[in-house]
Amino acid sequence: MSNSVADLIFSQARSQNGWLDRPVSDEQLHALYEQLKWGPTSMNCSPARFVFLRTSEAKEKLKPALMPGNVDKTMSAPVVVIVGYDARFYDRLPELFPHNPAVKMLFEGEGKREIAHATAFRNGTLQGAYMIAAARSVGLDCAPMSGFSEAAVDQLFFGGTTVKSNFLCGLGYGDPAKLFPRGPRLAFDQACTFA
């Protein structure tokens, strides 16, 4: 990875707290997905589901589920993504893992709910992280966040489905005037060991 790409996606990228009044196009969202879909997941299970909230009506629907500290930056974002995961991701495994479609049996049935949930949540979270990298690669800024009622979002946006919410992410063009000072990160020796 060249320094310019690594800078764009990681070292120079920032989590945003405010937005410029500049739209995000459908083409950018399609390009973002076309990048993120190639990120690896276990058995290619691809459990993430993405809801792109673009209209003020859609964001108003989300607003009651937000913690107060997230309302302004969420409502002003050109796009807010609900990153979810399908608890029944394994129904698509025969299509997504065609060289061994029987792996579906690892996740369905009595006593397998815990492993199915862990697999869906873990891999859906990975895909959410790929979405952030992909968004930055197509020139968008991001504001990933928790701080919302998962139960409310699930009811409002995923009612009657097997999809559950994981996290939210604002997308657009960040307002540099609203950035907080960059937070510190752990040094290698604080976060890593050799075995």
Question: Could you explain the architecture of this structure?
Answer:
The protein has a single domain (3-174), classed as NADH Oxidase, CATH 3.40.109.10. It is globular. The protein has eight helices and four strands; from the N terminus they run H-H-E-H-H-E-H-H-E-H-E-H. The protein is of the alpha+beta class. A four-stranded antiparallel beta sheet has the order 1-2-4-3, with helices on both faces. Helix content is 38%, strand content 15%. The model has no long low-confidence stretch (mean pLDDT 96). InterPro entries: Nitroreductase, Nitroreductase-like, Nitroreductase_HadB/RutE, RutE-like. One of its GO terms (molecular function) is oxidoreductase activity.
Outline the fold blueprint.
Elements: H1 3-11, H2 26-36, E1 48-53, H3 56-62, H4 71-75, E2 79-86, H5 93-96, H6 113-137, E3 141-145, H7 150-158, E4 163-172, H8 188-191
Antiparallel strand pairs: 1-2, 2-4, 3-4
Helix pairs in contact: 1-6, 2-6
Keywords summarizing the entry:
4 strands; Nitroreductase; FMN; alpha+beta; four-stranded antiparallel beta sheet; NADH Oxidase; 195 residues
CATH class reads Alpha Beta
| Number of domains as seen in the coordinates | 1
Helix percentage: 25-40%
Task: Choose one word for the global shape.
Answer: globular
**CATH architecture call:** 3-Layer(aba) Sandwich
Mean pLDDT value: 96
The secondary-structure class comes to alpha+beta
Per DSSP E runs of 2 or more residues, the count of β-strands stands at: 4
Helical element count?
Answer: 8
- Fold-level CATH name: NADH Oxidase
Q: Report the span from N to C terminus.
A: 27 Å
Largest sheet: 4 strands, antiparallel
Cross-sheet strand order for the largest sheet: 1-2-4-3
CATH superfamily: NADH Oxidase
Low-pLDDT stretches: none
Q: SSE order in H/E notation?
A: HHEHHEHHEHEH
- C-alpha Rg, in Å? 18 Å
Strand content: 5-15%
InterPro entries: Nitroreductase (IPR029479), Nitroreductase-like (IPR000415), Nitroreductase_HadB/RutE (IPR050461), RutE-like (IPR023936)
Enzyme class: oxidoreductase
Protein name: Putative NADH dehydrogenase/NAD(P)H nitroreductase FAZ95_25325
EC number: 1.-.-.-
